[in-house]
Design a protein that fits this description.
heterodimer; A: about 45 residues; about 85% helix; rod-shaped; B: about 550 residues; mainly alpha
């Protein structure tokens, strides 16, 4: 049981990172699309 | 493959050159899409104060994650065992979260500011501004140097090129894409860098874990851990790693211009989601990298040359194939470049605003000259970073010193944004006094026996109350903060009295907090100053006449 939880403890972080990356990437491309539609620079 | 004798997998020189050209060439091309052939001074520093969530969250995450944080988290995992990465990454992540409520307040009183020091000038005057700007400059140059060293060491370790060639390649690459568009280039390229970094984390950590033995490693390598290392609630890990880091949480967030700059750049209504996302992204990435240290500990790997900073590269060359080794190379390059370009942008903003802008006066500023000052600063800062990096100076002691300087500034800075009574004199004297007491405590220049030890303990215990009180104040206000501060002092006192001074790093930081708080409070409480915060916004921001004209002729803006 301890080995299972230690494995979860090590592997949970890449999962959280993947979720964060998804959120950031989705928002970035939405903003990029909107900026293009409005004819302005993203930054 | 024998790591100890140096016989391990290398990347061919042509591959490393190709990766450097791909990475820095790609980021440079990305900056060409910014589309500002004629850059303006305000845009160069804060990108017009209206950056969206995706860009700002990516930028905040990328900036906060630097090569040193990955290496240090792995070191913490290797040294303190399974709780080590938490005691590094979690508190570092909370650093971003705890600054958020203060960030909102700062943005509310100075919506168009470029640097925190600039706001301090409007609030207090020159001495407070220069203390904050000076500590920011020192911190950014140290960070820049550290990132150049990390890049040089990585290239020297993984390729046939030398350390010196490595730092020159990294410095030139970063300057290439940052020089023209400044902060705009920094935040835009941060997105690509964060994708590279976070994407690599998602792949590399599981690959290394399973290559090292997977779940079976926890059984076969259990004997490599001490009782403390195997304990998730290790007191050793907390007292030596976690507690000093908690004390530094607010200091680094308040004192770091790279964070302040992003705070001023993001659209005001997006500050909250940006900070929360960056907290999660930073925490998971850095703790995840700390797991590599834990894996190394279980696997019985000894750091090359006894240097725990070699652990991550060692694991990479041991367990990753050629393709993933290239991914690893790009990841580390991304982490150090994103922080280094932010440091360059931060340094140029300080030079433009606090040195040039405030010296000649807001009305006399020439935006073209201001831009020139910013770009020259970037070149000089890169040269300084290269100079310090080529000597491979021990910058960690300097970093600790700057951390303490920021610790001494935390209460005076925060109080200056909320309390009308804080004066310039109180700000300056309290900071200098805190610093004067921090140095002998941190570097153990004085004997801690007898009365001195108890005096340091008392100040340190008050420091615990100050730190926790300030953290609470940001979210829940003064009443709750006072209660938390007093309770923290009461709880800590029985354990800390007679023992705290034995932990020099921790007690040094806590003394810096408490002394600056006590003196700043004592000097301000009877002051007759009744500062009007609404005047700050009139003294900061908008150096470009074009933007002013636009606003004056904008009927919507005028209605507001």
């Amino acid at each position: 049981m301890e080995i299972f939880w230690l494995t979860v403890y090590v592997l949970i972080w890449p999962v959280v990172v993947a979720g964060t990356l998804f959120v950031i990437t989705r928002a970035f491309f939405r903003e990029w699309k909107q900026a293009r539609a409005e004819g302005r620079s993203l930054v | 493959m024998d790591l100890q004798s140096g016989e391990y997998q290398l990347l061919a020189g042509s591959v490393v050159l190709g990766l450097l050209v791909l990475f820095y060439g790609g980021t440079f091309v990305m900056t060409l899409f910014i589309g500002k052939k004629k850059e303006n001074a305000d845009g160069y520093m804060t990108a017009g104060n209206k950056i969206g969530f995706g860009v700002s969250a990516a930028s905040m995450t990328a900036t906060w994650i630097w090569a040193a944080s990955m290496y240090a988290s792995a070191t913490s995992g290797y040294t303190y065992g399974i709780s080590g990465p938490i005691h590094y990454g979690l508190w570092g992540a909370l650093m971003i979260l705890f600054i958020y409520p203060f960030g909102r307040r700062i943005r509310a009183v100075a919506p168009k500011a470029h640097t925190l020091a600039e706001v301090m000038y409007a609030r207090h005057g020159r001495s407070s501004q220069l203390m904050l700007a000076g500590s920011n400059i020192l911190g950014s140059v140290i960070s820049l140097t550290s990132n150049f060293i990390a890049g040089g060491a990585l290239i020297a370790l993984l390729s046939p090129f030398s350390f010196r060639q490595g730092i020159i390649a990294v410095a030139a690459g970063i300057l290439l894409y940052t020089l023209w568009s400044g902060f705009r280039a920094s935040v835009l390229t941060d997105f690509a860098q964060v994708v590279a970094m976070l994407g690599a984390v998602v792949i590399i950590i599981p690959v290394v874990f399973f290559a090292a033995g997977g779940p079976g490693l926890f059984e076969s390598g259990a004997s490599n851990l001490t009782v403390q290392q195997a304990n998730f609630f290790s007191s050793e890990a907390f007292l030596n790693q976690g507690a000093p880091y908690i004390a530094a949480v607010l200091a680094y967030a308040i004192g770091n211009q790279t964070i302040a700059q992003r705070l001023f750049a993001v659209r005001e209504d997006l500050i909250k989601p940006t900070f929360i996302t960056a907290t999660i992204g930073y925490g998971a990435t850095v703790i995840g990298f700390g797991m590599l240290g834990v894996i190394a500990l279980y696997a019985g790997i000894t750091p090359m040359d006894g240097d725990t900073n070699n652990l991550i590269p060692q694991l990479a060359v041991t367990y990753l194939g050629p393709v993933l080794l290239c991914v690893f190379f790009i990841m580390i390059l991304g982490s150090l470049s994103s922080t280094a370009d932010s440091d360059l942008a931060a340094l140029s903003s300080i030079a433009m605003t606090d040195l040039y802008g405030q010296t000649v006066g807001k009305k006399n500023v020439k935006p073209k000259t201001m831009l020139l000052v910013g770009r020259i600063t970037m070149i000089l800062a890169t040269a300084a970073g290269l100079f310090f990096a080529s000597g491979q100076m021990n910058i960690l002691d300097l970093l600790v010193f700057v951390g303490a300087l920021w610790g001494a500034l935390v209460f005076p800075v925060i109080a200056s944004f909320y309390w009308k009574k804080v004066t310039n004199k109180a700000f300056t004297i309290s900071t200098l006094a805190a610093l004067a007491l921090f140095v002998p405590v941190r570097f153990e220049w004085i004997s801690m026996s007898g009365f001195t030890g108890y005096a340091v303990d008392v100040l340190g215990i008050v420091g615990v109350g100050v730190v926790l009180g300030l953290m609470t104040f940001g979210f829940f206000g003064l009443k709750v903060a006072r209660i938390v501060g007093v309770v923290a002092i009461a709880v800590a006192a029985p354990f800390a009295m007679g023992a705290l001074h034995e932990y020099a790093v921790l007690s040094g930081s806590l003394v810096a907090y408490s002394v600056s708080t006590i003196i700043c409070y004592a000097m301000s409480v009877r002051s007759k100053q009744n500062f009007d915060f609404s005047t700050i916004k009139d003294h900061v921001g908008d150096f470009d006449p074009i933007e002013t004209i636009k606003r004056d002729t904008d009927p919507v803006a005028n209605r507001k």
